[in-house]
Specification:
about 300 residues; Uridine Diphospho-n-acetylenolpyruvylglucosamine Reductase, domain 3; 3 domains; five-stranded antiparallel beta sheet; about 25% strand
Length: about 300
């Protein structure tokens, strides 16, 4: 790693990491797993970076715990830990499923959820799952801490609202899963070449009897930034699922999602077709789980 930069610093606390970023005056980048970042540096996509600040040993950023009726997931938690965590499976199964699909086991042992989010790609599996789970990001600066809705982190493909050299993504806070609530994640990949997502979807639902009490849906890539399908959620909220209701929901989803043709992944028409497949599949998984999680 040292050969990729002029200086390598291993931080042991959030405060130490922030101090290193401030002293570097814009020429530093944070690294934890590094599965994407190090490739970017090798390929010359991070010009001007002289210092790497390693936060993989910051205890707080490696945390995975239940606190005050919510789940905290540190930005440096690896995909493998997420996929196998009983806590995550219980309260955020969509995220556990997404983490298990993202890469091969070797990469999942080092790649982190913070890195997945910070790359700000519109079809990032972890990001899509966190959006449906109503995650809030915890950010730290030298002036203190703040929480922001996850949607507030993105402004374009590969671009975040994080201020370089000032903002540190500490982790994510997710509401706990209550009775009748469940989530699911699905994706489709190109069987040839690199298994990147053609399309993916995460869905969280609150089931009361046979009626949708509340629902959250995210799908990617549906535009330049990861986002929720708010209009589709409105169609389903308060409804008893039926073929007619699902058809109306799909029609609304296709209106608000902006699928494009990618020469390396799929055509817009094929993605639109798969959106219907994933909506039915992901809703069915979450709906069945919500029934199983009801308490008598």
């Amino acid at each position: 790693m040292r050969s990729l930069c002029e200086e390598y610093l291993l931080a042991h606390s959030v405060e130490e990491a922030l101090e290193a970023l401030a002293e570097a005056q814009g020429s530093a980048l944070l690294v934890s797993g590094g599965s994407d970042l190090l490739l970017d540096i090798q390929q010359g996509n991070c010009a001007g970076v002289k210092t790497l600040v390693d936060v993989s040993e910051v205890e707080e950023m490696c945390g995975l715990e239940y606190v005050d009726e919510s789940v905290f997931i540190g930005a440096s938690v690896t995909l493998n830990r997420l996929a196998n965590s009983r806590l995550v499976i219980q309260h955020a199964q969509a995220l556990a499923e997404a983490a298990s699909m993202m890469a091969n086991p070797q990469v999942c042992n080092v790649a982190t959820i913070g890195g997945n989010v910070a790359h700000a790609l519109p079809a990032a599996d972890g990001t899509i799952a966190l959006l449906a789970l109503s995650a809030q990001a915890e950010l730290a600066t030298k002036d203190g801490r703040r929480r922001v809705p996850l949607e507030g982190l993105f402004k374009g493909v590969g671009e975040t609202t994080l201020v370089p050299g000032q903002d540190l993504l500490v982790g994510f806070h997710l509401p706990s899963c209550q009775q009748g609530q469940a989530s699911a994640f699905s994706r489709r990949t190109n069987p040839q070449g690199i298994p990147l997502a053609i399309i993916n979807m995460a869905l969280w639902v609150w089931r009361k009897g046979e009626r949708v009490e509340d629902i959250r849906i995210s799908i990617g890539p549906s535009g330049p930034v990861p986002k929720r399908m708010n209009g589709t959620e409105e169609v389903l909220n308060g409804q008893i699922p039926s073929p007619k209701v699902q058809a109306l929901a799909l029609a609304r989803l296709l209106e608000e999602a902006h699928f494009r043709t990618s020469p390396h992944r799929a055509s817009a028409d094929y993605r639109s077709h798969l959106a219907g497949v994933l909506l039915e599949e992901t809703f069915s998984k979450a709906w069945t789980r919500a029934e199983a999680l009801k308490r008598t």
